[in-house]
Every structure is written in C-alpha cells, then in structure tokens.
Design a protein that fits this description.
The structure is a single chain. This protein has a single domain (51-207), classed as Tgt2/MlaC (Nuclear Transport Factor 2, Chain: A, Roll). It is α+β, with helices and mostly antiparallel strands and 210 residues long. The longest helix has 23 residues, at 92-114. Strand 4 (161-168) and strand 5 form a beta hairpin. Helix 2 (30-47) packs antiparallel against helix 4 and helix 7 crosses helix 8. The chain is built from 9 helices and 5 strands, in the order H-H-H-H-H-H-E-E-E-E-E-H-H-H. A 5-stranded antiparallel beta sheet has the order 1-2-3-4-5. Keywords: Signal. Pfam families: MlaC. InterPro entries: MlaC/ttg2D, Tgt2/MlaC_sf. This is ABC transporter substrate-binding protein. Residues 1-24 form the signal peptide.
C-alpha cells in the first residue's frame, strides 16, 4: 500500500470511528436504566439493613457505589450554578471544585435519608418516548402508604444514560438548589470561592418548598 493509499485508508477509518461515536446511543431504554439503578441500590439497602442503622459510613458508601456513578455531575453543576457556571463568574477549576463538593454533600444528605430506609417499595410509571434528548422517567415511591413521585431527567452519554436532574413531588431540585446557591453567593459578598466552599444543598428545604 503506497503512502497516499495509507493516508486515505487512515482518514477513512478515523472518520468512521468519529461518526460511530457521534451517533452512539445507549442500548438500554431509559426506563430500564432507572429500574436497574433503583433495584441495585434498594437491594443493597435491604441486604445490609440491620447494620446500616448504626453505621452511617456504610450507608454513604452504598449510595456512592450504587448511585453516584450514574449522575451527570457536570450537567447538574451547570443547572445548580446557573449563570455562575459561565466564564464570566467562574473558571473550570472552580466549577470542578463545586461539582466535587456538591456530590459529596448530596451523598451525605441521601446517606442520612437512606439510613432510615424501612423496606419501602416503588412502582414505575409507563414511560413515554417523546424523542427528547433528555427523557424523563418517573417512579412512585411508597413511603408508609404515601406515594412520592420522583422523576429522573436523563442525559445521553453514548454508552449509557446518566441522571442530570431530579424532580420530587413536582419540585425541581436543580432549580431549587440553584436558588440556594445564588443566595449563598450573595451571603458571601459575591466571592465564588467562599460560596463554593460553604454551599450545602438542602434537599429537605427544596422538596418542602411550596
């Protein structure tokens, strides 16, 4: 094969690889993805329920292993930081720090909530594929007879879906956390570094906001 043919062949292979990657989509249906994540987390909580009551660190480890890998941290960061996620207000390092702190704080919050898990069940609502690039899957959690709807907005990451936002009982957590962060920026006099370091998203306040 002469040099020209080699170059043409190489260019064709690369172009095919790029096109394939660009057109790649999760093989798993959005509803199947959420069911897999929910079942994986709940099954771990059931198996280790007895020891979780006295071991908060174990609960957080389970949440980190079974939920955190499926969260689109960058998308969540952009939603929560809002205008502060733009280069006008923050740089890439600050946004990365925010994402790390945000993930850790959510795990603390969810860890405490799941420590109280007492074998609740859930049902999945029928999924309607509207062709959206951010499909929404809704689960009704049964908490002592009360149904709590939780909707997961997903993002296509090529090989799998990831969760980019959550809505609980009609409350958009991403937007509520955005309001909380904006208020924290003001409390810190517009100092983004201080606002990021001290921000603690309050899921209970967000969900109970009317």
């Amino acid at each position: 094969m002469n040099m020209l043919l080699k170059q043409t062949f190489t260019a064709t292979v690369l172009a095919t690889m790029v096109a394939t990657a660009a057109n790649a989509a999760p093989a798993e249906a959005p509803s199947a993805f959420i069911k897999r994540v929910a079942d994986g987390l709940i099954s771990r909580l059931k198996v280790d329920h007895a020891k979780l009551q006295s071991n908060p660190a174990a609960v957080k480890a389970i949440v980190r292993q079974n939920l955190d890998p499926y969260v689109d941290g960058q998308a969540f960061t952009r939603i929560v930081m809002g205008t502060y996620a733009t280069n006008q207000y923050s740089n890439a390092a600050q946004r990365a720090k925010f994402e790390q702190n945000f993930r850790n704080t959510l795990i603390e919050n969810y860890g405490s909530a799941f420590a109280k898990y007492t074998n609740q069940t859930y049902t999945m609502r029928p999924f309607k594929d509207t062709g959206s690039k951010n499909p929404v899957v809704t689960i009704d959690f049964n908490n002592k007879g009360e149904k709590i709807p939780v909707s997961f907005q997903l993002a296509d990451h090529g090989s799998q879906w990831k969760i980019r936002n959550i809505n609980v009982s009609g409350i958009d957590l991403g937007l509520q956390f955005r309001n909380q962060f904006a208020a924290n920026v003001k409390r810190n006099g517009g100092d983004i570094d201080k606002a990021i370091a001290t921000f603690e998203p309050d899921a209970d306040a967000a969900v109970n906001k009317k």
